[in-house]
Design brief:
binds pantoate, binds adenosine-5'-triphosphate, Pantoate--beta-alanine Ligase, Chain: A,domain 2, binds beta-alanine, alpha/beta, six-stranded parallel β-sheet, 10 helices
Length: 310
């Protein structure tokens, strides 16, 4: 018989708030791990880290419509709630799971057409429109908005985010400091599959052939990092290493007629504080090396840190 910790599941903001209140009186710190569900080991490692920092752990599962563009995969996004709850239960360290309803988070509705949206939205200017934000212009507005709502509802002392979404970490750090949330932010390392592919809920979209080639982005980034570690600091020389490697693999995929293509969206090399593209990397400042690759229709992202932290 299992004697695992019971998880309280809240789909209602008021009841979550009243649960949260007791820990203020008890002076117990609450850690919060926001997710969109379809949980994998990357998420679970964040939850475990959260439990090492705080006695109380809350996880949210919410596929946030505001961060999806009309042409993106909101409807297809994998939803595996009962398995997610089982995984969280098996960790034996989660106190509460928050499963808000879309209509409670967005009481004015949330049409994907931004012109039709009503209500309050939050934007972190200067860090939301480069890199991922070029391909997904409203993505960080959606993320910043939902996290502001969640931070107000859950009132966490600590929050945990994954390095896999490096720009998201920088945007959230800025959101927390600029809006004066009394929250400590932690960034967990990227969980990877045995061959280096960054774990991601969207990896479920990949066919077996696509999965074999999904490591291409990580291989390109690793080749660049290797060159950096050997002393190269020039953008063009570094990025060309990655472009070349990725293009060679993309060519192999085309020649093998596998029925899909590898298409690089971007490679980026930015200052970790300002997210400005760098021509030359300074040893003391370091850089975030990141990119995105379409494997067929599935868009994967990854990054490696060059002498810096998030
Ligand atoms: N491989 C990973 N290692 C560590 N943390 C991760 C990993 N993948 C996601 N996370 C983190 O988990 C949190 C929730 O992410 P999310 O639910 O969007 O999962 P995801 O796998 O990134 O999904 P998607 O496929 O949509 O990118 C975020 O802070 C994210 O950075
Ligand atoms: C932080 C987040 C849960 C906000 O919806 C999402 O962007 C994610 O899962 O990374
Ligand atoms: N982890 C990022 C969530 C998204 O791509 O929508």
């Amino acid at each position: 018989m299992s004697s695992r910790k019971e998880i309280l599941v809240f789909d209602n903001i008021l009841s979550l708030r009243s649960w949260r209140k007791q820990f203020i009186k008890q002076d117990k710190q609450v850690a919060f791990v926001p997710t969109m569900g379809s949980l994998h080991e990357g998420h679970l490692s964040l939850v475990k880290q959260a439990s090492q920092h705080c006695p109380i752990v809350a996880v949210s599962i919410f596929v946030n419509p505001a961060q999806f563009a009309p042409n993106e995969d909101l409807n297809e996004y994998p939803r595996t709630l009962s398995n997610d709850l089982e995984l969280l239960h098996s960790l034996d360290c989660v106190d509460a799971v928050f499963l808000p309803k879309v209509e409670d988070i967005y009481p004015f509705g949330i049409p994907l057409d931004v012109e039709k949206q009503k209500g309050a939205f939050v934007e972190v200017k200067g860090k939301s429109h480069q890199m991922e934000g070029k391909s997904r212009p409203l993505f960080f507005r959606g993320v910043s908005t939902v996290l502001t709502k969640f931070f107000n509802i859950v009132q966490p002392n600590c929050v945990f985010f994954g390095q896999k979404d490096a720009q998201q970490c920088i945007v959230v750090r800025t959101l927390i400091s600029d809006l004066h949330f009394p929250i400590e932010m932690h960034v967990g390392k990227t969980g990877r599959e045995h061959d280096g592919l960054a774990m991601s809920s969207r990896n479920k979209y990949l066919t077996p052939d696509q999965r074999n080639y999904a490591t291409t982005l990580f291989k390109g980034l690793s080749a660049i990092k290797n060159e950096f570690d050997q002393g190269e600091k020039n953008r063009e020389i570094l990025l060309n290493k990655g472009y070349e490697l990725i293009e060679n693999i993309a060519k192999e995929v085309r020649e093998n007629n596998l029925g899909f293509e590898l298409k690089l969206d971007y490679l980026s090399l930015v200052d970790p504080r300002t997210l400005e593209e760098l021509q030359e990397i300074e040893e003391e400042k370091g850089a975030i090396l990141s990119g995105s690759l379409y494997v067929g229709k599935t868009r994967i992202i990854d990054n490696l840190l060059l002498n810096c932290t998030l």
